[in-house]
Amino acid sequence: MSQLTYEKLHPEFGVRLRGVDVSKPLTTELTREISAAVDDYSFVCFPGQTMDDDRQLALTRQLGKPEPSHTSVGKVEYFGTIGNVQKDGTVLGSTHKKTIFLTGNNMWHSDASFKPVPAFLSIMCAYETPAEGGVTMFVSLRAAYERLSPARKAELDPLIAIHDYVYSRSKVAPDAVSPELAASLPPVRQRLVRTNPATGTKNLFLGSHVREIEGMDPAAGRALLDELTAEAIRPEHIYGHAWQPGDVVLWDNRCLLHAGAGYDADRFRRYMRQTRVSGTCSTLEEAA
């Protein structure tokens, strides 16, 4: 019998799990149950945890292969900081280039969908959170796909989308991506519809990194992407996670979109650390 208690967070996805300390090594049984919860609920929150980078990386390794950060060209770095607090405790204001760059996270996206093998899980540990704002919004692209008509599903299933990091980050600022980083992340082809190998459920694969639909007139492709995204992110489909210190959250990038709601970086401190678990293959190699 499971030692975990489940609290549903939204009618379409998301669960809060209690009864486990994820800062400690997990049993095989617990690891299997947590992985099943990710497949079933897409978003899993463990509140009230006591973490640090070493414990977070250990948890990441238990759930799969840690994914190196795409922004660290020439070196392997598994962590990213979400917020304005630096390692030495200093705080960056709203006009600092790093803070502006992170506003790209306020667009609806799937983490690292622009990689040949896109990210599977994101793991976020919250340490300092703002008193106002700082909510992260999530929607299920599995639920969005299920709402489509059979004819629409048949139309979308074979399509290939082009994901482009430079395209998305250039919306933040024209010089947001260095030439070196841009060269390391050329555009990639991804399925528009993915299938979860464990459950067989299908979902759309959208987000701000998607530049166009392969083989489709650019304007028509853009209209299709915008239409699908707009329907997916209607207010009734959104779960807004108000972060609390001690939250450890796993979310499935294969089938969720997320976007930051913003906060006042001049008034509040925010410090969260993110790692990711790599996917296993290109979406083009996944079962249709």
Please outline what is shown here:
With 288 residues, the chain is an alpha+beta fold.
Can you count the helices? 8
What is the residue-averaged pLDDT?
A: 94
CATH class: Alpha Beta
Q: Report the sheet-strand fraction.
A: 15-25%
State the share of residues found in helices, binned by percent. 10-25%
Overall geometric form? globular
Order of helices and strands: EEHEHEHEEHHEHHEEEEHEEEE
- Calculate the terminal CA-CA distance, rounded to whole Å: 35 Å
Keywords:
288 residues; 15 strands; 3-stranded antiparallel β-sheet; alpha+beta; single chain; globular; Double-stranded beta-helix; 7-stranded mixed β-sheet; 8 helices
Would you mind describing this structure in some detail?
The chain is α+β, with helices and mostly antiparallel strands and 288 residues long. The protein has a single domain (5-279), classed as Double-stranded beta-helix. 24% of the residues lie in helices and 24% in strands. It is built from 8 helices and 15 strands. The strands form 4 sheets. The chain has a 7-stranded mixed beta sheet, covered by helices on one side. Strands 12-6-14 form a 3-stranded antiparallel beta sheet. A 3-stranded antiparallel beta sheet has the order 8-7-11. β2, α1 (28-41) and β3 (43-46) form a beta-alpha-beta unit. The chain is globular, with a radius of gyration of 18 Å. It starts with a strand and ends in a 10-residue tail after the last strand.
